[in-house]
């Protein structure tokens, strides 16, 4: 792994620095200063919903999860689903699921962390994530960005910005604000109110064919990543990862800040196991994320084979894993009037990647230090900025 710029004995002073001068530093970043320089003087932190964390304090990290909720209502221009009386149960049960993940880790590989990949206004409630984070040792990193995929339209806010002449720049400003100051509060009108809870990743996506509004979101994400150093993590739909990577890099993103997600099945649109395609993305310097481990077409042995192929190509430092679990998804998202009975609850197992997938990798002869690189070291590197 990349050696970190501070020795253990300096952690306290670094934390004080982060607390004391965060406002000035973030303001400078927001004014368009480039991301902090790489090198021995760079102070990098992982931006969790409870504040910046020394990357060394992150254990095994699941890079694409949702907790506790996803709600597509706003994509369909219908009112958001009520959390209401279910809020407390959502918190308690999701904390239990995350705690089970944490408890499955050895002391050296904890505390666990998840990247919460629910972007703006599709069930992303910043305060809910903070309340969840306070109930579990698992770190939670939230996401800015706009989502879409073949089955769901892009958020109307993104579509509108995407067709305006300076829309990509304004979208980038929104992402930067969410990363440096705090995420939007979905309780108000769009863009009216902001929390002080910061995002630590930029989540974007494409349909089976990249739409114009999706292209604008990619350009905005590259701009925001360049200004802040924040990583970009993508949703792909039956392929399109290479196209995403190329567009992001052409738009100025650093390949070491780009994570191409939902890999592991039909990623080139043709082959169930598209190993050569993964190598093409890795050669660009981007990360490949196998984030549906254990689900349907993404069984552990198949994911392990694809990961092994990348390791054999020398790319073990470009591999990330996760499950894409959604404990609470609102089923009746297109309904005009909604009640709490529309929530679908999933008892999600957040330990598959660290247990069953790790076993599948061992069976292919992947040594434990390389498995640790994938589960612990790679997330620390890509999430710190
Ligand atoms: Zn997801």
Query: SS-based structural class?
Result: alpha/beta
Output the CATH topology: TIM Barrel
Residue-averaged pLDDT, rounded?
Answer: 90
Counted beta strands: 14
According to CATH, what is the class?
Alpha Beta
**Bound small molecules, which ones?**
zinc ion
The Cα radius of gyration reads 19 Å
Order of helices and strands: HEEEEHEHEEHHEHEHEHEHEEEHH
Task: Report the CATH superfamily.
Answer: Metal-dependent hydrolases
For the record, the CATH architecture stands as Alpha-Beta Barrel
Helix run count: 11
Number of domains: 1
Main-sheet strand order equals 7-8-9-10-11-12
Considering DSSP H and I runs of 4 or more, what fraction of the residues is helical?
A: 25-40%
The coarse overall form would be globular
Q: What is the topological layout?
A:
Blueprint: H1 11-30, E1 46-48, E2 51-53, E3 61-65, E4 69-70, H2 87-103, E5 113-116, H3 126-133, E6 139-141, E7 143-144, H4 156-163, H5 167-180, E8 201-205, H6 212-228, E9 232-235, H7 241-250, E10 258-260, H8 275-283, E11 287-290, H9 300-312, E12 319-321, E13 328-330, E14 343-345, H10 353-363, H11 368-383
Parallel strand pairs: 3-5, 4-13, 5-6, 7-8, 8-9, 9-10, 10-11, 11-12
Antiparallel strand pairs: 1-2, 13-14
Helix pairs in contact: 1-5, 2-3, 4-5, 4-6, 5-6, 6-7, 9-10
The chain binds zinc ion.
């Amino acid at each position: 792994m990349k050696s970190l710029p501070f020795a253990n004995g300096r952690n306290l002073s670094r934390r004080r620095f982060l607390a004391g001068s965060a406002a000035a530093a973030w303001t400078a970043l927001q004014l368009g200063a480039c991301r902090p320089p790489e090198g021995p003087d760079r102070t990098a932190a992982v931006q969790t919903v409870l504040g910046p964390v020394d990357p060394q304090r992150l254990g095994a990290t699941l890079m694409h999860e949702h907790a506790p909720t996803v709600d597509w209502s706003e994509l369909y221009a219908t009112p958001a689903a009520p959390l209401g009386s279910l809020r407390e149960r959502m918190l308690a049960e999701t904390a239990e699921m995350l705690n089970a993940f944490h408890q499955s880790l050895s002391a050296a590989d904890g505390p666990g962390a998840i990247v919460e990949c629910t972007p703006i206004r599709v069930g992303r409630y910043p305060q809910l994530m903070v309340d969840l984070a306070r109930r579990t040792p698992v770190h939670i990193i939230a996401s800015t960005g706009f989502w879409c995929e073949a089955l769901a339209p892009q958020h109307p806010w993104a579509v509108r910005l995407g067709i305006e002449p300076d829309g990509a720049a304004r979208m980038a400003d929104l992402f930067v604000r969410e990363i440096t100051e705090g995420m939007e509060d979905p309780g108000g009108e769009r863009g009216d109110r902001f929390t002080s809870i910061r995002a630590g990743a930029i989540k974007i996506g494409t349909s089976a064919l990249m739409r114009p509004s999706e292209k604008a979101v990619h350009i905005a994400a590259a701009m925001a990543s360049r200004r802040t150093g924040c990583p970009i993590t993508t949703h792909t739909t039956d392929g399109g990862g290479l196209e995403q990577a190329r567009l992001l890099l052409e738009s100025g993103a650093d390949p070491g800040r780009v994570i191409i997600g939902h890999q592991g099945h039909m990623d080139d649109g043709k082959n169930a196991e598209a190993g050569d395609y993964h190598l093409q993305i890795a050669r660009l310097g981007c990360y490949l994320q196998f984030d549906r481990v254990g689900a349907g077409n993404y069984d552990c042995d198949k994911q392990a084979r694809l990961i092994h192929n990348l390791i054999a190509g020398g790319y073990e430092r470009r591999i990330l894993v996760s499950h894409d679990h959604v404990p609470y998804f609102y089923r009746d998202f297109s309904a005009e009037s909604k009640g709490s009975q529309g929530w679908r609850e999933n008892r999600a197992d957040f330990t598959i990647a660290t247990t069953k997938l790790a076993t599948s990798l061992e069976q292919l002869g992947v040594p434990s230090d390389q498995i640790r690189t994938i589960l612990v070291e790679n997330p620390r590197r890509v999430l710190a900025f």
